[in-house]
Amino acid sequence: MKQIYTITAFAENRPGVLYRIADLFLRRKVNIESLTVSEIEHTGQSRFTILVHAEPLLVEKLVKQLYRIIEITKVIDSLDQSLIIKEIALIKITAKNLERRREIEQLVHLANGKIAAVNQSYLVVEKTGTEEEIDSLHELLKPFGIKEFVRSGRIVVFK
Amino acid sequence: MPVYDALYDYMDRIIHVLVRHEQGAAHAAEGYGRITGEPGVCLATSGPGATNLVTGIADAMMDSVPIVCITGQVASHLVGSDAFQEADVMGITAPITKWNYQITDANEIPEVFSKAFHIAKTGRPGPVLIDITKDAQFATFDFSYPKEVKMESYQPTTHPHPKQIELAAELLNKAERPYILAGHGVIIAKAEKDLIRLAEKGGIPVAQTLHGVSIFPTAHPLHVGFLGMHGNYGPNILSNKADVVLAVGMRFDDRVTGRLKDYLPDAKIIHIDIDPAELNKNVQVEIPIVADAKNAIQALNKEIKKRSHSAWIKEFQKCYQLEEKKVIQNECDPKKGKIKMGEAIYKLNELTKGEAIIVADVGQHQMMAARYAKFVKPNSFITSGGMGTMGFALPAAMGAKYALLHPPNGQVSDGKASLDREVICITGDGGVQMNIQELATLAQENLPVKIVILNNDFLGMVRQWQELFFKKRYSMTKIKNPDFVTVAKGFYLQAEKVEKREELMGALKRMLKSKGPYLLDIKVEKEQNVFPMIATGASVDEVRLE
């Protein structure tokens, strides 16, 4: 049965590694649901966090094939219960009317989000949390008319 | 240009062969890599030069052959700007190389080259490509070659886990019908003798994959034949009767397994491979062992008990007798009609006594060569297996011959015996035309490669499928061939054509006696099929004998 897997790959920080990783997912016809890459505490190493929706057996094969990439040092596949997961979302909402602004601010406050930017014509809401928390705030804000909604893709640490 | 200018000063130390097409260079490098285990090197210019290497690189990737390709690239400030003769070689070759790297600064050259050779030949070997921008080629710097390669990220596991070996030995010691499937990994690891010892001690029959052909001397009593779509009858059909299968250095390719869900239903499987990604990839195995084949087999040898399985081995012999009666006799010793492909291989073999290195192209003749050539020495059969690249054999045979004549530093040739070993390219009338320009290279180098064309004026394997599965609708498979003898002579090669059975032996003898490169065009029966055959999607126990 298909499940959500987070594949965390550590690699030497060199051009071309992402290309090879992406190609492997292409060959196996697995869609990457989200992807974040950044340099980690030890310099010269990158950490890739790749979210996929796939069969366990296929994930096992993908992990082994990822190891074929020379620059890759470690690959770990995890289910959500073994991870602490966070994602950040930015939501831009048109709000010229003061009353509406207040309503939005209240909702955001209740949902543990914050207002990241504000000017005369719009608000930008910042929400850090799990994917579900972000989804639910997104739903709550929809009636106000969302101009832009962007999310970072998850980053995780292991429990 | 700067690289070639520098080569001018090294002509006495670096052997450079000017091939006529870059694809030929890549396959020739493969031929060299297959024989020596050391990377063959090919050079190509930027743009089209580099893209012409692609088929050869992909072929080396599929068949785990060590090669290092060096390509030129436009100057670094022009990379990405669609400059003249610029191609995204890094992007194009990423999926078909084990590793690739673009050098834009000459100071990177020593480290990157030492890494490239290390990566190409260690672990599971494969192709590596180094792309060097023009400015890096012109720059000068202080050269010092690193003595050893240190890479945190690349450390192939070469020694087996002792517990896994123990479990594997336990299974094999208890087995009633154990069966060894041996592949290319055994040859790469130079573990042939160890495997023979293991099989003899455990009394275990051994079948070889296409790339495993010649691991065992053909006549060895425990060698039961060749696996796969056109392999021997017994090794295929009896796979499904085995109770314990030891697969070494092979990857359960679909040509070997047939329909997966009916493959090895009763067997507990032990799988040894140096590439962890091969374990549980196609077939679920009981005991996966990540290791170099030699280390794993040697470790198993210590644990395995002396056994014999004569009733089980007799089953293979019975199957062989049936195959002999139904297929082999008529193929190798026909009394009438046109020359048959198997017959040509069989007679060639009588003359070479199994000492030759056979380099086969792709198609019916390839399967005939794998089936009917006999071998006495390991690593004597080279072909394009995974990719099935038509046009592979002629350039690969050149590379193989060079490997015998000029073994790499540190590898001592067996003296004259090795230098004199024949390299015979077995090809088809379709395949040979795909890299026929390399006849010019053979002539220029006067390289004594013998070329045998099994010529049926068809793209024979496709025609066979059309006959069997498409109601004989021979769509675009009939070929009007050139006169290969005239073509060869145009390239200043000796050549001969033979059509009659009674002239075949004489023609083969003349070919083997000749000093330089030689082409023999053998006209064979037009609509001959390769049997046995496991149709695509059929199970290994549904082998057709006719």
From TrEMBL, chain A:
Species whose genome carries this gene: Candidatus Roizmanbacteria bacterium RIFCSPLOWO2_01_FULL_38_12
Signal sequence range: none
Family statement drawn from the similarity comment of this UniProt entry: Belongs to the acetolactate synthase small subunit family.
Reactions mediated catalytically: 2 pyruvate + H(+) = (2S)-2-acetolactate + CO2
Enzyme category, top tier: transferase
Residue stretches making up the ACT domain: 6-81
Function: Catalyzes the conversion of 2 pyruvate molecules into acetolactate in the first common step of the biosynthetic pathway of the branched-amino acids such as leucine, isoleucine, and valine.
Record PANTHER family: ACETOLACTATE SYNTHASE SMALL SUBUNIT, ACETOLACTATE SYNTHASE SMALL SUBUNIT 1, CHLOROPLASTIC
EC number(s) recorded for this UniProt protein: 2.2.1.6
Lineage, opening ranks: Bacteria, Candidatus Roizmaniibacteriota
Gene Ontology BP term (one): L-valine biosynthetic process
Name of this chain's protein: Acetolactate synthase small subunit
Subunit architecture: Dimer of large and small chains.
Keyword annotations: Amino-acid biosynthesis, Branched-chain amino acid biosynthesis, Transferase
Entry keyword annotation includes Amino-acid biosynthesis: yes
Pathway membership: Amino-acid biosynthesis; L-isoleucine biosynthesis; L-isoleucine from 2-oxobutanoate: step 1/4; Amino-acid biosynthesis; L-valine biosynthesis; L-valine from pyruvate: step 1/4
Gene Ontology MF term list: acetolactate synthase activity; acetolactate synthase regulator activity
